[in-house]
Amino acid sequence: MKIDDIKRILVVGAGQMGAQIAMQSALHGYAVTLNDLSMDILEKGMKGNRVQLEKRVAKGQMAQAQMDAAIGRIRLEPDLEKAARDADFVVEAIVERLEPKRELFSRLDSICPPHAILVSNSSTLMISQIAPATKRPAQCANMHWFYPPLVMRLVEVVKGKDTSEETAQLVAELTLKIGREPVILRKELPGFLVNRILRALGREAYYLLEQGVASFADIDKAVELGLNHPMGPFKLADFSGLDIGYNARLETYEITKDPSDLPPKALEARVKRGDLGRKTGRGFYDYSATPPTPTPD
Ligand SMILES: NC(=O)c1ccc[n+]([C@@H]2O[C@H](COP(=O)([O-])OP(=O)(O)OC[C@H]3O[C@@H](n4cnc5c(N)ncnc54)[C@H](O)[C@@H]3O)[C@@H](O)[C@H]2O)c1
């Protein structure tokens, strides 16, 4: 298959990631089908997209006609069979659990056209765990977007052990076509590139905090002013949700049994109190104040 043979993209899962992946693809001219478990969920996903695009129109960054045309290119279809029939490229962005993903890939394999490429947006599950559920593992890959997909430019394209070079190149080409920048990982490994580097930074930041070397606010300040990162590791943890980082560490520990992978005390204490970061108004920082103030342990 050639890049120009990709005419219609199907995105399965219209949550935080899938709805915006569909929107980003439609903004770049692709016909898109968006599938989820119900029409209500699909409409909620599209409502979120409208809010984002209306802001761009209000700021003069986008014409109303451009927004309307892009929204018009997205077909909402809760029936997977109907959604998959004419798909050339499928992005899976459903719940982060292996079995549902394997079941979905198996079903997609039987109902999509034989040439279709199937990719997973999973952050932690590697395509080699999912693709054996299909009869087309060479046409499967990870295509890992970052939140929020309408803003974040990077996409990690990851080859599993059976992914063909042609598939990896096509996923990378499509990424460029929809206004995003690909990096290709020639070998798969948990956490891919970005989350591994982020984890290494986070581990050191928590180590320095636990050793009493500096406060978390000063560690954030050091990373922001010394490395030019837009947010230090503790502010970023608040932004992503402390429960997300906490659960990811527990899952990693389940696999590695390495105590250094367990959630650090400062993180655990906040999660146990229900202080999950920005979404609850309080995490490492208290967001009821402007600027936010550091919280005590
Ligand atoms: N949230 C992030 O920051 C982020 C970043 C990168 C990658 N991801 C990955 O993207 C995927 C989706 O994450 P999310 O944050 O959008 O989750 P989410 O919970 O917001 O959305 C998942 C959606 O999938 C739907 N769904 C579940 N099972 C389905 C099925 N069988 N068929 C169709 N739809 C189904 C749910 O109804 C829900 O709307 C996960 O694999 C996650 O690891 C998430």
How would you sum up this structure, described in words?
The protein has 297 residues and is an alpha/beta fold. It contains twelve helices and ten strands. The strands form two sheets. It has an eight-stranded mixed beta sheet, with helices on both faces. Strands 9-10 form a two-stranded antiparallel ribbon. α7 (165-177) links the parallel β7 and β8. α1 (18-27) crosses α2 and α11 (242-256) packs across α12 (265-273). The structure holds nicotinamide-adenine-dinucleotide (NAD). Nicotinamide-adenine-dinucleotide is lined by residues 12-18, 35-37, 41, 93-96, 100, 104, 121-123, 145-147.
Summarize the model shown.
The chain has twelve helices and ten strands.
Helix and strand topology:
Elements (H helix, E strand, L loop, with lengths): L7 E5 L5 H10 L3 E5 L3 H20 L5 H9 L1 E3 L3 H5 L4 E4 L5 H14 L5 E4 L6 H4 L9 E5 L9 E5 L6 H13 L3 E5 L8 H17 L5 H12 L5 H8 L1 H15 L8 H9 L11 E2 L6 E2 L3
Parallel strand pairs: 1-2, 1-4, 2-3, 4-5, 5-6, 7-8
Antiparallel strand pairs: 6-7, 9-10
Helix pairs in contact: 1-2, 11-12
The chain binds nicotinamide-adenine-dinucleotide.
